[in-house]
């Protein structure tokens, strides 16, 4: 146990800027290539729905469960007032969740705790698993956790650090990309049940304004996160 804890809190040497840049390019390829994005977007959905659930609990709502679907959509059900700050915050959290988690990951990497960051993500997946209410969602979370277990259990520290940088870049980039993808669907007349459109029905700003706010948060996280990744 002591050896395991030492590995988790171990401070890794600063990554060369070329490694940081290469990790970013890998993340870009994963998102830009439709074949890999088809699978990777499920990870974004996990973070999206997990963000809904976390903020719902923080806002004092009762979380009923989370479902993840094969088309990479998801559903987080919480009970409480159908309007007000708690509901607005819960709906807003989904599309900014990946960017904010990526920013947190970049900050942790900046402190030199790449391996600890991966274990932190594994703990979050374990907590999320308790709220999953369908078999496909269980499968997605378990596969994601299995990949992290394999990386942290079998790869050398240098490879774990590189993988951690890829994950951080992926989250930072996937945040704004998901909002842009959503807006394309909205422009085609789809996605009218999306988070921005639900927010528009309970507040005075329109869905486009809410989508722009979400994009602004994600872009801000990307800019600050990228600076943190290169700073060390």
UniProtKB/TrEMBL annotation:
Domain of life: Bacteria
Transmembrane segments: 20-40, 85-108, 114-130, 137-157, 163-182, 209-230
InterPro entries registered for this protein in UniProt: Peptidase_M50B-like
Keyword Transmembrane helix recorded: yes
Keywords associated with the record: Membrane, Transmembrane, Transmembrane helix
Protein name as annotated: M50 family metallopeptidase
Organism encoding this protein: Leekyejoonella antrihumi
């Amino acid at each position: 146990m002591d050896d395991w804890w030492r590995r988790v809190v171990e401070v890794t040497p600063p990554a060369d800027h070329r490694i940081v840049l290469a990790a970013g390019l890998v993340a870009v390829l994963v998102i830009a290539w439709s074949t890999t994005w088809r699978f990777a977007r499920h990870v974004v959905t996990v973070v999206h729905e997990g963000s809904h659930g976390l903020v719902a609990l923080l806002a004092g709502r009762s979380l009923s469960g989370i479902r993840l679907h094969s088309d990479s959509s998801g559903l987080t059900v919480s009970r409480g007032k159908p309007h007000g700050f708690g509901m607005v915050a819960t709906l807003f959290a989904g599309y900014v969740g990946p960017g904010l988690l990526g920013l947190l990951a970049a900050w942790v990497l900046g402190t030199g705790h790449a391996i600890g960051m991966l274990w932190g993500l594994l703990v979050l997946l374990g907590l999320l698993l308790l709220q999953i209410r369908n078999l496909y969602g269980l499968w997605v979370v378990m596969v994601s956790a299995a990949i992290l277990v394999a990386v942290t259990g079998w790869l050398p520290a240098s490879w774990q650090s590189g993988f951690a940088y890829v994950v951080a870049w992926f989250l930072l980039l996937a945040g704004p990309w998901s909002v842009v993808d959503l807006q394309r669907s909205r422009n085609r007349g789809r996605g009218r049940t999306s988070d921005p459109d639900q927010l528009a029905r309970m507040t005075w700003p329109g869905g486009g304004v809410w989508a722009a706010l979400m994009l602004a948060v994600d872009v801000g996280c990307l800019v600050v996160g990228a600076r943190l990744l290169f700073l060390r």
